[in-house]
Design goal:
Blueprint: H1 23-50, E1 62-68, E2 75-81, E3 83-85, E4 88-92, H2 103-110, E5 113-118, E6 121-129, H3 135-145, H4 148-154, E7 162-167
Antiparallel strand pairs: 1-2, 1-5, 3-4, 4-7, 5-6, 6-7
Length: about 170
């Protein structure tokens, strides 16, 4: 991933964090982010135990992404929704509409090599941000597949980097 930060569409249209969200939606996203933080290790274990089957009831394509912590140097694994792109996978650094990019994004920015586990297969990947001309088309595909990203977009002033994970071997 390069030093440039490719982001989702129209980052300047929201001037205030959380504009367009009801109070209930803001509370829900805050709880969701908190639960994600504490339940992530459980999600990783369940994903591995079921070889990804845990996501099937929700009709979500999910993967495990293992990065190297940019400060700690230790492996960090998270469960992420992905969108297929041939043999590559596209992920969105939405962080549930949080004010900052997720840790895994910063880790990939520092060191783009990572490991992905998809349906029981382990793949080495290299992360690359989508070129600016691809972002609008991908953003529409993402919203069509999962409308919750629109709510995340309304929850924050930042725009979301979209990252392609390309198998390297």
């Amino acid at each position: 991933m390069g030093a440039r930060d490719r982001r989702g569409p129209d980052p300047g249209r929201r001037a205030v964090t959380g504009i367009g969200l009801s109070r209930l939606e803001r509370i829900g996203l805050t709880l969701h982010r908190g639960l994600d933080r504490y339940l992530s290790p459980l999600g990783v274990r369940l994903y591995r135990r079921t070889r990804g089957g845990i996501a099937r009831p929700w009709h979500v394509d999910a993967l495990l992404l293992t990065t190297v912590g940019r400060r700690s140097g230790r492996p960090r694994t998270v469960v992420l929704q992905y969108f297929p792109d041939g043999n590559a996978m596209v992920v969105v650094a939405a962080n549930d509409g949080g004010r900052t990019h997720p840790g895994w994004y910063h880790n990939l920015h520092a060191r783009p090599e990572a490991v992905v586990e998809v349906m029981g297969r382990r793949l080495r990947v290299r992360a690359e941000e989508l070129p600016a001309d691809e972002v609008p088309g991908w953003w529409q595909r993402i919203l069509k597949r999962d409308a919750s990203y629109e709510r995340y977009e309304r929850a924050t002033t930042r725009s979301f980097p979209i990252v392609r994970l390309v198998p390297t071997g």
